[in-house]
Amino acid sequence: MRASILISLWIPILSYSTTVFASRTLDPSHVATIPKRSPPTNDEGIISTSLFQDGKFWFANFSIGNVSNLALLVDTGSSDILLNREKYLPSGSSKDLNKEVNISFSTSNSDGTGSESMTVHALSDAISLPGTNLIIPSQAFGEVTTPISPPQFPHDGLIGLSSQENSLLNFDPWFTSLCATHQIPACRFGLALGVNKTGMIYLGGVEEGVIKGEGELSKAPLQSEWVTWGDVVFGGEVIERGARMLMDSGTAVIFGPFDVVQNLFNLAGIQSISRVTLLREGVNATILTGYYPCATPPIFGFGFPSLANISLAESNMSSPVSNSSRIFNVAAEALVQNSTNGICTSSIYGAKDLDLWLVGQPFFQGRYIDHNFDNGSMGFADLG
Question: Alpha-carbon distance 261 to 308, whole Å?
Fold first, then answer.
């Protein structure tokens, strides 16, 4: 893959189980913008930094070793920091961790096909977030050693924001290290991604000032980081309850189970075509693609928490789950994967043998999504 080709889903392949997409067995009404905020630390101790969008992905700048302003793809679907070859210059505190790991990432093309494989060498060095006082003096990360070219990630590399149990290097991830060293007031972060290429990440709490209305989140429980349950919605009506959903900021599209997505397209009255495509070497997948007139986009969305989970809140007063569900529709701008002569390709795809939803950027745009390690929940809200 050439550097100009975008990577659509950064989910590491550990082993294949019941699906060909998932890496592990895992039991347009409002257009928002993100206000720029300064200074980076607010009165509640929450630390924020801006993100920038390139293509369909979001990047933050980090300093690692003796290199400043490395642009890393922000990915909630993985856990490790991985740098492209020859991007790293060691500082005096650099350490060789004497470990190499072979890593593959599935669905590496912008249409959800393909894969990327690489060997990374584990190192540790000081990692800081420019414009803030956050620094981990000895943070493990991986440097790509092979292939030599082309670059494996857009820009300089990737930073994973999932948990240690999902680390392929088997070291504490960067955000886990922040929590362990008590540099942030709470072990949670929020992604606030607009539809106009402005974005922020908030570390240590919830920035209520950017949330629409009273700043209240619609909270859903976690099965694991960052897998929750939601309802599938068309035109404001729930068509499936309790669907498992992996919320992944490193995904350029939304994938859902083939039959459910086919039902969505049928309800919307839009054309769909299925095709067999090569997902990775030796593995084919049947993908369903939908097409609609750009002037009349369908209204697809998800409800959180799932109506199936609300009973948790009703039966347990200490549960973090909200006691009512809210519907969040995919913004019309984000529903467009591409367009030709007034016909748009939907950014929601169906896939055979997929038993959960992979919910990526089309849903994140225009949202504040809270990732709470402390109480095992995710929170959703529209941006103000």
Answer: 20
Q: How far, in Å, CA of 77 to CA of 371, rounded?
A: 12
Asked if 381 and 218 count as a contact pair (C-beta separation under 8 A), the reply is yes
What's the pTM?
0.88
* C-alpha triplet 57, 59, 60: angle, nearest 5°: 160
Considering just the CA atoms, what is the radius of gyration of the chain in Å? 20
Beta bridge partners of 75: 160
Task: Say what the pLDDT of residue 42 is.
Answer: 45
Tens of pLDDT, residues 267-303: 999 999 999 987 666 778 899 999 999 999 999 999 9
Q: What HEC string does the chain produce?
A: CCCCCCCCECEECCCCCCCCCCCCCCCCCCCCCCCCCCCCECCCCCEEEEEEEECCEEEEEEEECCEEEEEEEEECCCCCEEECCCCCCCCCCCEEEEEEEEEEEECCCCCCCCEEEEEEEEEEEEEECCCCCCEEEEEEEEEEEECCCCCCCCCCEEEECCCHHHCCCCCCCHHHHHHHCCCCCCCEEEEEECCCCEEEEEECCCCHHHECCCCCCEEEEEEECCEEEEEEEECCEEEEEEEEEEECCCECCEEEEHHHHHHHHHHHCCEEEEEEEEEECCEEEEEEEEEEECCCCCCEEEEECCCCCHHHHHHCCCCCCCCCCEEEECCHHHHEEEEECCEEEECEEEECCCCCEEECHHHHCCEEEEEECCCCEEEEEEEC
Give the closest residue to 350 by CA, choosing from 266, 260, 268.
260
Q: Residues 270, 206: contact at Cβ < 8 Å? A: no
Q: What is the pLDDT of residues 86-138, one digit of tens each?
A: 999 999 999 999 999 998 876 555 555 567 789 999 999 999 999 999 999 99
> Quick one: CA dihedral 365, 107, 86, 154, positive or negative?
negative
Q: What pairing do the DSSP bridges indicate for beta strands 227-234 and 348-351?
A: unpaired
Residue 135: how many other CB atoms lie within 10 Å: 14
Q: What is the mean pLDDT of the chain?
A: 86
**Would you tell me how many other CB atoms lie within 10 Å of the CB of residue 30?**
14
Distance of CA 33 to the CA centre of its chain: 19
